[in-house]
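Known limitations

Structure tokens in this collection are predictions and should be treated as such. Users comparing against experimental data should check residue numbering before alignment. To illustrate the layout, the record for DUF2568 domain-containing protein is reproduced below. The input appears on top and the generated tokens appear beneath it.
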Amino acid sequence: MPPQKPQDLGPLDAIAFLCEIAMVVILVLAGHGFVDGWRGWAVGAFLAMVAVAIWAQWMAPTSARRLELPTRFVVQVMLFLTVALYAAAGGLVLPGIVFAIVAIGVFAALARENAS
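Generated tokens:
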């Protein structure tokens, strides 16, 4: 595959990347909230790996199976809400709610920007 031409990335793209990183961190911490000790970290790592696999398969810009808008945005919202629910179940209610609101807002703006 030939190298792709770099895209113009803006501040919204940087915030979106930070949301993706926050999703992984929140899932690891939420897993630790389910069970104490190493088992909690293992559960959190598993949850984070599942989220990363879903993202890499259907949402990553370089994925061959990337979903088209608006389907991609709907799946992103469902993933963000699921992460918020896992965070709340793991004792991170406020970080989960804040994450979901910020991530959905950022990716809604990106979807609007990419649709036009």
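For this record: Helices lie at 11-34, 38-58, 71-89, 93-115. Residues 11-34 form the longest helix (24 residues). Please report discrepancies through the issue tracker.
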